Q: What sequence folds into this?
């Protein structure tokens, strides 16, 4: 392996990596704009210039590859390459490049939604000059909509062309292009081909400045006010890693989080804007018990007791319905309560889309089908017929949530039940049919693990505070189970449920949040 | 080189202190007859000097547009955490496409340090010379955007406490009552 | 003289007795001291009474001298008490028995 | 002096000099015949031996460039004739295409043979419509006479030549920009490495040579490398077409050996300056080279090394002469405007810097000069193109040499004619 | 007659406050009671036409000595005494008996001797400052000087005691 | 946003053989973009959106990519222009030899500024950078032809030819 | 004693009491106004014309305020203390003659509540009593600051009482009497028979001691705000606090009256025989007494707003090391002078 020396630090790294990657991996900061690990290298921003000993010119570190050199050409007899990222020449160069970048960049950080996570802002602060020598008028162009969700502020654009390359290479839709050349060049779309693909939101993410903005977040807040929580998208079974940005109890936006094993660097707009679904829902905040045609709120004790009574009335004719929207832990606990009959409602599907870059939107629009199947023993294929044959009179249902639209068939089946207990966060169609509604956590409040369709267990982290009297799903199920089976398995926290789950299912043995971490843990390769 | 400072050697009269005491008495006695400087506050208003940090205002452009772009630098800079802004797209054209939908300042938390003024990149928030704002409830002392703009109207042309405006003295209270 | 001498003397006697009782009963050095003052005053009273009865100034001179004495005594006595207190953190004379053993 | 007999332009004054028959009559395609019998490596070696250096501007050794072509690659190899002559002050290729297209074509075939290429392109400037038409004719003629196509001249070597028109972009004269343009994209130069000789047109090994360079090849083959080497200085030998334009009585293209003195070129060949005006400044190698003052120009020899020593370069040998009446600030603006217009806009310094230069110079000319502007011009120029220090090599900051091409002339203008720039500044500053 | 009534009233106050002094467990209260006692004594002196002594009583006893007491009490932060100490009954009873004997003895001597209440008749002339002054500085000059010497010694002793630890 | 419902005008090449020939010359389709654009422009006068769409279809890529290419080059006009284009070189040699006067001349004569078209659509005046004929400066390109070493008089004569 | 005599005494007591209380009110007003003027301010000017009713308003305010007795105080003493302070302050005035005598109901009535032959001693005795008020207030409040204030104050009073007494001794020596009327008579005649001219040193010592005795600046260490919050009256509120307040001013009035009596000829108008002028003379004498007193009261205020507070050790040093020796020296001088005079 070639041995590098960057700023006096010895680094041994694989041949063929770039200096930029080598430096980044070793905590040496080299600024850049046009480089993106998932995109083709163009080296146009010139921000990452470094000095490489033995080369007359400064080199762009994003396109300078590390390789073994013959021993007689090694520097100091041992280094294959000696790089300076901090010397006067480089520092001065960065200043100059930043000066150029800021020539026509408006100083409207105060208005710009990127402020706070803007590379131009950060680098100007770190490396730039304090004052601009530019006396002339800045180039001013009006904002344009590139697509229904993306607006471009041409003035802020620094022509890194990441967005153009994104549409060409990742989404393969090539809506964006650079119009004209030189001083007049700008990012544009053809009038009849706007940027409206399902990955469009990513261009706002990758834009290093505030030129490309998502209309969904524009002028909503400032980034430093928001809490950033790494989590997992729950809108399809791919399970893209996301960062959830929230303020107090409101989610403001989702951005993709890097996970090369799952989603790379991007996410689709279905997931990106999916959180809006939960904003205007009829939230269940207290346990509800049916009284005639309407519900009355009850406290937890009565609700649980009522649940137990209903189940006990015809214990052998009770079925549990697990949900691919819930975490492994909730499904596991429900599965343990109703071992005899366990099933799930018909899957919620959409269009399966695979982009040329390999990015995928799964047809299965529920996040945890794989996990649900893994973790529930004896889950029946055709629940409807099973209900008929076994004369099921009581159902305990984990509600899929707002996405579930009950068809008439199921409405009929559920309507015929003696008693229905639903664990839900909202008054969905399903919950309205229930006799007892137990308020659980909404998707972005839940904690637990989910398994994506490729068998990767990922950590679903709560991004919002708990609402009023709702309890974590696993805790509710634990209470029901304890009361029903006279058990005293008291789980204080989710980790204990996971442990229990591991004891039962070999694939999930030894899974902890620590092990899952931010990047997930793959159970592929293990026999299922 | 150190300079040697000779300590003052008190004279006999100094040690006696009496002349000094007399001088002191004369000083105060002279003041007894001087013109007094008291301002009869509610009747007369003190006109604060330039740079006085009193009630806030939100500045407007001559054409009526709010200068504030809701960048929240002021709320970030505020040591008392008394500024709360909800931004939104601006209803005006041209350039600054963001403006505060809500802009609340909790005057009871505010310590009038003026950091918001310093942090403001648009020179939108400014502390005026108004010092006599008071109210009966805590809620009434949270001044909102409309109130702040009203303060601007009251203070943009001249010092709030100059004669012409005095008749409006009560209007400040109503302005922040909102 | 508005009252008979005996009444004055009896009063003096009573006060003196109270003083004695105080000295005997109380353990607090300060209170004892005050009781002593009481006794001295009783004596003064008697002296004044006699002086009045005999229409002589001598009694008053004695009173004067007693007062002087009392002042001196109090000054020294209290100083001793303070010094004691400093050393032993108490003014209970039962506990101040350094020289007893 | 006049003992030199033009090589490339020997016959350009003659009638129908562009036709195949004429070219054949002066011994055309004999070199090709000779080459076709040779091992391609030997051809490369011959060219290497001749020390032929690229005539396009950079002056890189042609033979060496060919040598970079990977021998064991399975990919097709391409030869591209760079006829995208856009450098201000240069018009030699147009002349060669007009007057001696077959000479160029022969050179192309030789080069293609040497590198093992079977499809070759002529990337001609979009504006050269007449030349394009002429070349189409020429190629048709060549196909008709089995000079192109399958089994050229009976050998088992075949070659197709395609004329590709550019569409008006100076930057497409840069080889990677040209390749992009050829691939049907915008002419944004590519980042190097990889170099075109390894991964060029369609990721295949590609050689890009200038028209004049290619035109030299038949003569080298015919007369031998040593003959070629004997003309002019050893390090950069050969005949060279010097284009003289601007304030001269007799502008045009003059073929002289390398190392001819600039004074001779201007005053002897180009007939000096009209109206007996004084010489003021000269661009020795197209607008991208650093300008020379009259004094410097008087005793400079036109060869690669000496001009570099003088702080300029031979470049494309487009000599632009400016007389004393020329306003150097205006001239500088003119050049800067050209570059701002032609900047591709890919890299930051060039995209932003060139327009800044234009804005500043415009302001200067419009009387808005400020103290410190001159230093700033210097710095901006440096920031675009890099610190110009010929002794240590230049420090380019952009993907292609365009940045340097902007920086050099502007910098030299400001440096050498500071006085004139000073006049545009507020007066008290001049005194100070 | 009213004045003699006053005498008995004041005497009662005197005795009451004296008892208070002895019985109260709070030193501060004792001191205040003592001051009250001195005041009533001063009134009695006035009634006995010994004006100078009366004023001196207040001046010296109340004004100086008792302040000193208070000062010390506060300085030592004595506050309340826990309880009256347990008494050695034999000792105490004996003492009490002795006092009573003394008291009774004098009473008997006084009454038994002549059986009359002694009441001076003539105008008292020695109550003012002049006679006292004259007596002090002539007849009793030596005791006076000795008294002042005593004061000096007390002064020095006090300073000595207060200044350093014993 | 799909061109607001109107049927999109389609562009077809008049000479499909020429198109075929162009494609045959290049090893890949994309490379034919420029020649096709040239061809289309000579047929249509400028590059319209329909031209871009059909070329994109031909070379098998997204229209935006073609547009990206078109917008880069100065010789492709995305808007209609006059019947004749006067392009006057502005760069140093020509400028030294009086190109500016020629521009002024046209401006005076036809009352058009650089970049504008005469009212009768006869001429469009353009200032261009170096045309590569510096030895014969000043040079003017009328449509595709170069006209070199012009003087005002010669220029007038030349313009008269086209009027 | 007949009824008339008793009535006359009662009236005199009432008059003196009322006058003193009125004086207190006036002083409260005066203090605020004068201090305001000295600081170029206006002072109270809202209640009544020129704010003269301000003290009444203050008094009403005091009355209306909640009378707060903190939990841990020694209640009886806490309540008693202000009274202990106020009563001696009011009693002192009894022996001070505030005018020559008048003839009413066929009697010559001295304008003095009680003509005590040991008047000076009486005054000294009473002033020494006022220490209790302060000390007890300080102690009973169960508060560090109060206690410290009380202790400081009592030490200060005792220390300065000595110097004050000794200063007065020299006057007594000159007058040959402890009766205040005798002292006044002794000073009758020209200006220069006033004791201030005969005993300037004694006057100085007396004046300074008086400031210390009344706890006024520059000797108000017992309530030094910067160190002790409010000193001995920190815990007091409402009327109890007002009593402290009144006591302070009553003390000031008494002190001023005493100063006038001892050193400025009392009610005597120099170069004038008041007795011969009848009622007018009496009025004149009262007026003269009041005027002289007013000056000293003004001086109190004046000094307060002029001088900074002493440090405690400075105060003690001044009392013991400067004032006391000086006073003794002064007595020595006076005695020597008298002896020489007696010897001829």
A:
């Amino acid at each position: 392996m070639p041995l590098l020396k960057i700023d006096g630090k010895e680094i041994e790294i694989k041949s063929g990596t770039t200096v930029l990657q080598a430096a980044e991996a070793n905590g040496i900061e080299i600024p850049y704009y046009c480089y993106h690990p998932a995109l083709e290298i163009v080296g146009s921003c010139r921000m990452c210039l470094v000095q490489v000993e033995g080369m007359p010119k400064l080199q762009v570190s994003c396109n300078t590859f590390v390789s073994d050199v013959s021993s007689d050409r090694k520097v100091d007899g041992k280094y294959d390459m000696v790089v300076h990222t901090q010397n006067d020449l480089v520092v001065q160069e960065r200043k100059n490049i930043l000066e150029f970048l800021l020539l026509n960049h408006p100083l409207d950080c105060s208005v710009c939604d990127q402020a706070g996570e803007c590379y131009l802002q950060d680098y100007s602060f770190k490396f730039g000059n304090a004052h601009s020598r530019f006396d002339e008028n800045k180039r001013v162009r009006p904002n344009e909509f590139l697509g229904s969700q993306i607006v471009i502020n041409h003035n802020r654009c620094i022509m890194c062309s990441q967005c153009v390359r994104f549409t060409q290479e990742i989404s393969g839709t090539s809506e964006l292009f650079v119009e004209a050349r030189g001083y007049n060049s700008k990012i544009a779309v053809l009038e009849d081909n706007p940027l409206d693909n399902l990955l469009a939101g990513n261009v706002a993410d990758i834009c290093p400045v505030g030129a490309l903005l998502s209309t969904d977040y524009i002028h909503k807040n400032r980034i430093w006010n928001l809490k950033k929580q790494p989590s997992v998208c729950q809108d399809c079974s791919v399970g893209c890693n996301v960062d959830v940005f929230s303020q107090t109890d409101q989610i403001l936006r989702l951005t993709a989080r890097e996970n090369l094993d799952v989603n790379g660097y991007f996410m689709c707009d279905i997931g990106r804007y999916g959180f809006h679904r939960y904003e205007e829902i009829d939230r269940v905040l207290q346990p509800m018990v049916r009284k005639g045609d309407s519900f009355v709120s009850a406290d937890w004790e009565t609700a649980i007791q009522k649940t137990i009574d209903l189940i006990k009335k015809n214990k052998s004719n009770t079925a549990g319905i697990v949900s691919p929207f819930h975490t492994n832990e909730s499904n596991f606990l429900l599965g343990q309560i109703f071992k005899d009959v366990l099933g799930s409602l018909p899957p919620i599907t959409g269009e399966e889309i695979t982009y040329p870059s390999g990015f995928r939107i799964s047809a299965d629009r529920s996040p945890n089908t794989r996990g649900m199947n893994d973790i529930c023993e004896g889950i029946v294929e055709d629940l409807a017929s099973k209900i008929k044959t076994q004369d099921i009179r009581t159902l305990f249902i984990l509600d899929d949530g707002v996405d579930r639209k009950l068809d008439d068939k199921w409405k009929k089946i559920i309507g015929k039940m003696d008693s229905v207990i639903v664990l839900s966060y909202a008054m969905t169609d399903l919950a309205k049919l229930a006799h007892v509604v137990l308020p659980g956590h909404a998707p972005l409040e839940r904690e637990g693990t989910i398994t994506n369709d490729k068998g990767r267990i990922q950590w679903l982290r709560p991004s919002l505070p708990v609402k009023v009297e709702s309890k974590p799903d696993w805790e509710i199920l634990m209470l029901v189970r304890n009361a029903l089976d006279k058990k005293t398995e008291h789980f204080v926290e989710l980790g204990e449920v996971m442990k229990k789950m591991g004891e039962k299912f070999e694939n999930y043995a030894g899974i902890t949040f620590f092990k899952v971490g931010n990047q997930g843990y793959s159970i592929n390769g293990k026999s299922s | 080189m150190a300079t040697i400072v000779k300590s003052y050697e008190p004279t006999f009269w100094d040690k006696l202190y009496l002349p000094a005491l007399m001088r002191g008495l004369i000083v105060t006695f002279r003041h007894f007859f001087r013109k007094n400087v008291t301002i009869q506050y509610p009747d007369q208003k003190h006109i604060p000097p330039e740079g006085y940090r009193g009630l806030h205002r939100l500045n407007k452009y001559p054409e009526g547009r709010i200068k504030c772009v809701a960048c929240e630098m002021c709320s970030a800079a505020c040591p008392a955490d008394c500024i709360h802004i909800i931004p939104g797209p601006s209803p005006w054209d041209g350039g600054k496409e963001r403006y505060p939908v809500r802009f609340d300042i909790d005057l009871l938390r505010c310590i009038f340090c003026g950091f918001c003024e310093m942090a403001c990149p648009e020179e939108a928030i400014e502390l005026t010379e108004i010092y006599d704002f008071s109210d009966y409830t805590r809620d009434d002392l949270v001044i909102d955007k409309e109130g702040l703009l009203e303060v601007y109207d009251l203070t943009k042309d001249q010092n709030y406490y100059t004669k012409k405006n005095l008749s409006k003295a009560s209007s400040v209270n109503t302005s922040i009552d909102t | 003289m508005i009252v008979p001498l005996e009444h004055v003397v009896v009063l003096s006697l009573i006060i003196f007795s109270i003083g004695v009782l105080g000295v005997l009963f109380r353990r607090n050095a300060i209170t004892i001291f005050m009781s002593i003052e009481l006794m001295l005053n009783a004596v003064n009273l008697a002296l004044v009474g006699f002086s009045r009865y005999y229409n002589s100034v001598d009694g008053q001179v004695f009173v004067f001298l007693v007062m002087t004495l009392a002042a001196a005594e109090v000054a020294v006595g209290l100083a001793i008490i303070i010094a004691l207190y400093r050393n032993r953190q108490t003014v209970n004379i039962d506990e101040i028995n350094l020289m007893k053993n | 002096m006049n003992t030199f007999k033009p090589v490339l332009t020997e016959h350009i004054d003659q009638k129908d000099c562009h036709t195949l028959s004429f070219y054949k009559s002066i011994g055309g395609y004999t070199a090709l015949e000779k080459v076709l019998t040779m091992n391609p490596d030997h051809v490369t070696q011959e060219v290497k031996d001749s020390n032929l250096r690229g005539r396009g501007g950079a002056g890189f050794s042609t033979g060496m460039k060919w040598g970079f072509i990977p021998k064991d690659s399975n990919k097709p190899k391409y030869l591209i004739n760079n006829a995208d002559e856009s450098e201000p002050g240069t018009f030699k290729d147009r002349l060669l295409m007009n007057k001696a297209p077959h000479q160029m074509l022969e050179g192309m075939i030789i080069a293609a043979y040497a590198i093992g290429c079977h499809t070759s392109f002529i990337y001609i400037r979009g504006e050269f419509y007449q030349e394009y038409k002429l070349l189409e004719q020429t190629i048709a003629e060549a196909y008709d006479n089995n000079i192109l196509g399958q089994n050229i001249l009976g050998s088992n070597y075949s070659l197709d030549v395609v004329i590709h028109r550019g569409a008006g972009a100076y930057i497409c004269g840069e080889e990677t920009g040209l390749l992009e343009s050829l691939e049907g994209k915008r002419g944004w130069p590519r980042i190097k490495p990889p170099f075109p000789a390894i991964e060029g047109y369609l990721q295949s090994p590609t050689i890009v040579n200038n028209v004049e360079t290619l035109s030299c090849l038949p003569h080298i083959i015919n007369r031998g490398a040593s003959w070629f080497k004997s003309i002019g200085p050893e390090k950069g030998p050969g005949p060279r077409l010097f284009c003289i334009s601007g304030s001269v009585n007799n502008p045009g293209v003059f073929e002289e050996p390398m190392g001819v003195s600039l004074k001779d070129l201007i005053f002897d060949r180009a007939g000096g300056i009209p109206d007996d005006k004084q010489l003021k400044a000269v661009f020795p190698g197209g607008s991208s080279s650093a300008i020379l003052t009259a004094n410097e120009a008087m005793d400079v020899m036109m060869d690669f090394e000496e001009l570099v020593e003088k702080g300029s370069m031979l470049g494309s040998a487009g000599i632009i002469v400016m007389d004393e009446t020329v306003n150097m600030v205006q001239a500088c603006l003119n050049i800067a405007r050209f570059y701002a217009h032609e900047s591709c806009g890919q890299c930051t310094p060039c995209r932003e810097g060139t327009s800044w230069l234009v804005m500043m110079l415009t302001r200067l000319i419009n009387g808005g000069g400020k103290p410190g502007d001159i230093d700033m011009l210097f710095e901006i120029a440096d920031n675009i193109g890099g610190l110009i220090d010929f002794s240590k090599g230049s420090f380019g900051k952009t993907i292609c040499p365009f940045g340097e091409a902007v920086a050099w002339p502007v910098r030299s203008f400001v440096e050498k004619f500071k006085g004139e720039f000073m006049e545009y500044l507020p007066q008290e500053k001049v005194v100070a | 007659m009213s004045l003699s009534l006053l005498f008995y009233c004041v005497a009662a106050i005197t005795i009451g406050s004296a008892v208070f002094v002895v019985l109260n467990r709070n030193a501060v209260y004792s001191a205040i009671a003592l001051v009250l006692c001195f005041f009533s004594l001063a009134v009695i002196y006035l009634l006995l036409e010994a004006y100078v002594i009366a004023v001196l009583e207040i001046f010296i006893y109340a004004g100086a000595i008792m302040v000193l007491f208070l000062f010390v009490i506060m300085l030592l932060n004595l506050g309340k005494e826990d309880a009256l100490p347990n008494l050695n009954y034999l000792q105490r009873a004996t003492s009490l008996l002795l006092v009573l004997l003394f008291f009774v003895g004098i009473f008997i001597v006084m009454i038994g001797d002549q059986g009359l209440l002694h009441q001076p008749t003539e105008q008292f002339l020695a109550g003012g400052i002049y006679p006292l002054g004259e007596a002090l500085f002539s007849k009793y000059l030596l005791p006076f000087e000795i008294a002042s010497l005593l004061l000096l010694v007390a002064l020095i002793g006090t300073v000595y005691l207060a200044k350093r630890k014993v | 946003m799909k061109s607001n419902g109107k049927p999109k005008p389609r562009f077809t090449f008049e000479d499909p053989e020429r198109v075929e020939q162009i494609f045959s010359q290049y090893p890949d389709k994309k490379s034919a973009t420029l020649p096709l654009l040239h061809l289309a422009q000579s047929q249509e006068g400028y590059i319209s959106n329909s031209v871009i769409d059909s070329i994109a279809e031909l070379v098998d890529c997204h229209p935006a990519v073609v547009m990206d290419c078109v917008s880069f080059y100065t010789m492709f006009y995305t808007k209609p222009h006059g019947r004749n284009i006067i392009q006057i070189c502005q760069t140093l040699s020509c400028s030294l030899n009086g190109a500016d006067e020629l521009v002024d001349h046209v401006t005076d004569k036809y009352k058009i500024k650089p970049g504008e078209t005469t009212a009768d659509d006869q001429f469009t005046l353009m200032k261009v950078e170096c045309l590569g004929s510096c030895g014969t400066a000043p040079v003017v390109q009328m449509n595709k032809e170069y006209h070199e070493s012009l003087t005002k008089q010669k220029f007038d004569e030349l313009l008269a030819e086209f009027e | 004693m007949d009824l008339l005599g008793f009535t006359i005494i009662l009236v005199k007591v009432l008059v003196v009491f009322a006058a003193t209380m009125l004086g207190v009110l006036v002083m409260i007003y005066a203090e605020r106004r004068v201090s305001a003027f000295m600081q170029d301010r206006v002072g109270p000017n809202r209640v009544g014309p020129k704010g003269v009713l301000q003290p009444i308003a203050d008094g009403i305010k005091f009355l209306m305020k909640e009378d707060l007795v903190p939990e841990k105080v020694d209640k009886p003493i806490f309540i008693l203390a202000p009274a202990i302070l106020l009563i001696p302050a009011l009693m002192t005035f009894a022996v001070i003659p505030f005018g020559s005598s008048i003839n009413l109901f066929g009697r010559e009535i001295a304008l003095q509540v009680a003509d005590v032959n040991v008047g000076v001693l009486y005054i000294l005795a009473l002033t020494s009593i006022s220490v209790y008020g302060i000390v007890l207030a300080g102690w009973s409040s169960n508060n560090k600051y109060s206690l410290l204030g009380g202790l400081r104050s009592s030490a200060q009073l005792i220390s300065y009482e000595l110097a004050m007494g000794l200063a007065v001794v020299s006057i007594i020596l000159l007058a040959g009497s402890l009766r205040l009327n005798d002292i006044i008579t002794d000073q009758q005649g020209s200006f220069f028979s006033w004791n201030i001219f005969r005993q300037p040193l004694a006057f100085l010592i007396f004046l300074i001691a008086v400031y210390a005795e009344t706890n006024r600046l520059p000797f108000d260490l017992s309530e030094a705000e910067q160190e002790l919050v409010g000193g001995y009256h920190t815990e007091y509120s409402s009327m109890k606090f007002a009593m402290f307040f009144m006591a302070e001013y009553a003390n000031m009035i008494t002190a001023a009256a005493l100063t006038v009596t001892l050193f400025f000829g009392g009610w005597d108008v120099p170069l004038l025989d008041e007795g011969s002028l009848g009622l007018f003379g009496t009025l004149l004498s009262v007026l003269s007494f009041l005027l002289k007193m007013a000056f000293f009261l003004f001086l109190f205020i004046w000094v307060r707003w002029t001088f900074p507070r002493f440090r405690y050790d400075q105060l003690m040093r001044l009392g013991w090391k400067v004032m006391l020796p000086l006073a003794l020296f002064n007595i020595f001088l006076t005695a020597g002078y008298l002896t020489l005079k007696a010897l001829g």
The mean pLDDT of chain A is 89.
